[in-house]
Amino acid sequence: MQTEIRNLLDCHVVGADGQSIGKVGQVYLNDGTGEPEWVTVRTGFFGMKQTFVPLMNARRSGEEIRVPFDKEMIRGAPNIDVDGRLSLNEEADLYRYYGMQPADIPRQRGGETRTRGPITGEGQRAGLAGDMRGDLADDRDIDITRSEEQLHIGKESRETGRVRLHKYVETENVTQKVPLSHEEVVIEREPIRDGEMAGVEIGEDERQMILHEERAVVGKETKPVERIHIHKQDVQHEETVEGQVRRERLEIDEEGMTRDENARFDRGEDLPPER
Fold first, then answer.
1. How far from chain centre, in Å, is Cα 231?
2. How do 36-43 and 59-61 pair as beta strands?
3. Which of 56, 52, 50 is nearest to 87 (CA)?
4. pLDDT, block means (10 residues), the chain with 275 residues
5. Helices marked H in 124-224 — which ranges?
């Protein structure tokens, strides 16, 4: 239970309209069950005002407590002293304001204390209150620093792939027609007329003739046919980078201020001149 209560003290209250109401200041427990029943939210001038918000029907998500009331309604809640215990009358007034009617509030015991005293962040609350009192002494000017986060976008180089150049040998069958020639014997006979040749004797004789032919001869040689060159080049492109940044906002409550002035302060614009 103590851990749960301490965790509540680190939360921010968000209204039904999605607007941030403020940080939890104190936690009030139910006397009967010991469960957290109310929290106070720091609102107003630099968080000096604390407003009661019921935890009934509220939902917690991480460091946010979402309540079913909008910001304007919470800021208009009855002004009750947060330094003591809630009386039955005070708690009944709060429930009536928020339109809630729990059955466990005995109205006939109007003056009897019902809700336990507040639980605060030890040390942290006391120090904050002391700082505020010191700032509000007799000073004419109040200084406060508003901070915000900024995105710093950088670049890094990472490996996206590798290119390998590999040379291998493949075999291909090549067919080509080659014209060839060869020698053949042609026999021609021619009759001799009388008286053309005389004194020829009969005897043996032998002559030879060499015939030739062309044959296809296959030879191979290696010669370069192409040069391949690979290099890297930088290609520029744009990429949209998104991120979340937090900024501190100022909310100022002052009697007589218009709604437009409050809205301008919520946007973090300059404060108006001293009146």
1. 34
2. unpaired
3. 52
4. 75 90 88 86 70 91 91 88 81 90 48 54 37 41 79 85 90 92 93 79 89 91 90 90 85 58 47 45
5. 124-135
Q: CB pairs under 8 A, 24+ apart, for 135-140?
A: 140/274
Specify whether the CB–CB gap between 209 and 241 falls below 8 A.
no
Q: CA 169 to CA 72: how far, in whole Å?
A: 82
Q: Using CA atoms, how far apart are residues 244 and 59, in angstroms rounded to an integer?
A: 23
User: Are residues 73 and 17 in contact, defined by beta-carbon separation less than 8 angstroms?
Assistant: no
Which strand (E) or helix (H) includes residue 89? helix 88-97
| Chain centre to alpha carbon of residue 179 | 75
To which CATH superfamily is domain 2-126 assigned? Photosynthetic Reaction Center, subunit H, domain 2 (3.90.50.10)
- CA pair distance 40, 218, nearest whole angstrom: 102
Give the bridge partners for 54, in sequence order: 38
Q: d(Cα 193, Cα 274) in Å, to the nearest integer?
A: 154
Give the position of tokens 């300059």: 270
pLDDT of residue 252: 76
pTM value is: 0.41
Look up residue 206 and give its two tokens.
């032998």
Kindly state the tokens that stand for 158. 């990472």
Q: Where are the domains of the chain?
A: 2-126
Distance CA 214, CA 181 (A): 5
